[in-house]
Amino acid sequence: MNCQRCGTPLREGEKFCPQCGTPVIVQKQTFVVRRMPVLLIIVLTMGFLISAFIFEDGDANLAVMLSCVPGIILMFLIYRMDRIEPEPVGLILKLFLVGAFIATFLAGTIESFLGMFIDFLFSWDPIVYSFMEAFVLAAATEELVKYQLLKSITWKHPAFNYRFDGVVYSTMLAIGFDIAENLLYLADNALSTAFMRAAFPGHCVFGIYMGYYYGQAKSHELHGDPEGAKKMRRKGLFITILIHGGYDFLCMLGSISESEFAQIIIGLLLLFVMVALNVTAYKNIKKYAYYDSPV
Question: pTM of the predicted model, to two decimals?
Answer without folding.
Answer: 0.87
